[in-house]
Amino acid sequence: xxxxxxxxxxxxxxxxxxxxxxxxxxxxxxxxxxxxxxxxxxxxxxxxxxxxxxxxxxxxxxxxxxxxxxxxxxxxxxxxxxxxxxxxxxxxxxxxxxxxxxxxxxxxxxxxxxxxxxxxxxxxxxxxxxxxxxxxxxxxxxxxxxxxxxxxxxxxxxxxxxxxxxxxxxxxxxxxxxxxxxxxxxxxxxxxxxxxxxxxxxxxxxxxxxxxxxxxxxxxxxxxxxxxxxxxxxxxxxxxxxxxxxxxxxxxxxxxxxxxxxxxxxxxxxxxxxxxxxxxxxxxxxxxxxxxxxxxxxxxxxxxxxxxxxxxxxxxxxxxxxxxxxxxxxxxxxxxxxxxxxxxxxxxxxxxxxxxxxxxxxxxxxxxxxxxxxxxxxxx
Length: 380
Ligand code: CAA
What we know:
Blueprint: H1 7-24, H2 28-34, H3 39-47, H4 66-79, H5 81-101, H6 104-116, E1 121-124, E2 140-143, E3 147-158, E4 165-171, E5 181-187, E6 193-198, E7 209-220, E8 224-225, H7 231-267, E9 269-270, E10 273-274, H8 279-307, H9 313-338, H10 349-358, H11 366-378
Helix pairs in contact: 1-4, 4-5, 4-7, 5-6, 5-7, 7-8, 7-9, 7-10, 8-9, 9-10, 9-11
């Protein structure tokens, strides 16, 4: 096991760091306020190869490993978690799922555009009454012979309005429970598909989160992904990798807040000295650093397992559980280190604190990660 970074890893990490500082930092406060992420920035991320990083170059991807992906996620998230969630969903939940499980025709038609960033994807699993309990799908896709008829509502969908293609999970046979669930590729322009209102969120406010409404949408049969009844497993397998990406997002949020708190503590004076010289502050920084390093190790380990072809499901959940708690704890303490300034938008840490919270909720809440981890440790 060797976690040292190669020349290629360092190059892609530095490219992401540069992009985050020069392109994402200016305007990040306004994007949070206006709840808007400009299309030009998505295009730039696509041009840099951040949107289909692990996809085989024959489908337009970067052919990189998972380590490269988590390095990019960390760097973008230090500055703008709204940008990194777009990257994460497109890479992990859309491109990965299509490359691993879609037919050659589906890959040619959709993956080639999604991997380059020419098109953007969304992953639609959650519903008003099926968040954590993902098997309780109410959205139905009825088999009509040459097509399926899709009806229902999806909630909290990242890239809800900016996506062109949507992977939609739906119940095709209620009697078969999770074995009667399928995943479909749905195009935005199809009749009966409507993008619902945008959510007004606590954090990652630049990213567009919407409900989606499907009203008798006709899905051609060839747009089903995999064998009949594969949809729930498809969602679980896709989310297993997604959780590594969100863990890296949480790590980046934590690391960004830590760096700001450290720099601030070396400048701000109180009681005749820089506040970093007070043990109350120095110990906060030490705690942040320890948890950030531990998160990074868990994430690198999960990424390594994935690249080695090992079963990384529990490792990804472990990394996400720990890193998201670290993001929450670190950002709260970073605000505290900044005192009154920490409560003010221009110092960035209050936004990072708001952004951190979602990492304990999406792609499986912390409680869901504990279900997966505990079931696994008790199985033998
Ligand atoms: N890989 C392959 N198969 C898996 C699997 C995995 N990781 N996890 C479960 N399965 C299979 C099981 O083996 C089982 O199959 P069999 O019946 O053939 O054995 C089947 O799936 C059902 O599994 P469970 O009995 O464990 O199902 P459950 O109802 O107890 O639920 C759960 C399991 C882990 C709690 C699951 O419901 C879950 O992950 N819930 C959270 C959903 C989630 O993460 N949503 C996030 C939405 S997407 C998002 O957030 C994107 C965004 O905005 C950024």
